[in-house]
Design goal:
By secondary structure, the protein is an alpha+beta fold. It has seven helices and 15 strands. The relative contact order is 0.10.
Amino acid sequence: MRYGSISLALLCLYASNSFAALEVITSSEQQTLNKIENEYDIDSLLINVNDKFSQLNKKAYDVEGLKKTIASEQLRYDALIDGLPDAIRSKTSLPDTYKQIEESVILVDELTQKAEEDSKRLESEKVEILSEYEKINKQRASKSQQLFKLKTDITNRLIADLSKSSSTLPVNINGSTECSKYQTIAACLKESQSSIVSNTRNESPFLNDKSVLLSYEVIDANMNMRGDLNYKVAMKFKPSYNNKIDEMLNEKLGLKSAMVTLVSNVPADWFVNGVKIGTGKKLFHEIPLGKHGILASYQNQDQSSVENIEGNGVFNYKFSNVTPAKKPASKPSVVVAEVPKGILKPSAKPTQQPAEQKPKAKYTLFSDQTSIKLSDDNAKKTSSDKGYEYFMGVSPATKKQNIEFTNEPIEK
């Protein structure tokens, strides 16, 4: 079958003389929409803050380069220290070696200070950028609230007008179809009626498959010798508010997502459709319209639900039998060395504490708190009440110092 164009009023509903034409969006509602769009220029704000965030990432990459340079210079310093005994023995290259060691120490200090300053500056910029994102999210939420209010007003108006007993939707169709050349025009039109009505219901936003057909009249029809039938049909339906109108409004108003507020009595981990979106007692999250699985997790307890998101909303998940978080036990202080080379000797004999396993001592190298763990043998030498003493290549001047440096027992 072939069907011609269907002259439908997609945005306007013409009813009887009892009331004026109905529209999906009236001119005054369109003006309100334009005002909201002009008031909240979210796109330009996002472009601006995204540019700032891109520059921040570039600066962070430069800081990482500084840290790599520091690490490389630390290795060069280690190599110079390892070669220092040979330089002392040869005596010829000793001044140059000392000079290189001094330059390396100064360079590491300068680069470390610069990396620390740049990191602090980046952290401050990051806080400002996140603050701008938060402001944009608040504006987006405010815009969504106004748009959803406008949609509610439009929906209430349409439902009120379409539910009136006098509301009808007239539809005039000029179309054509192929019939058997042995059929009569009346028989062919009768056979095509159900398809014509079904296609009309699918095309109009005011109709669905349950819309009542009030009248159906063939105005004109003619068929040639090949069986091609041209017709003109006038119909009337009882219109209704349905999903097609709702989808049109969402598209027109830009309501493809909504801002939801997730609230709990504890700082829970929040997941939407299996993806973690954050942790806290109260979170704001933008989510596409439709059904979504929301889950809150805290201390091996879960609260979850499947929600049909049709607009901004608040979802509460309360946990019971919650035990307060325990304060972390105080750990023994760990002494860190800033110098990359040295001989580690305990200042006193370690106390025996077999019941408690001591943490490994850490060797802090850089400003970003990157640490290297010492060997187990050195770690076992830690003392709970006294720190380490570091002897950096100093030769003992007396027998007493030799005993203290090497920790050898005094011969009796």
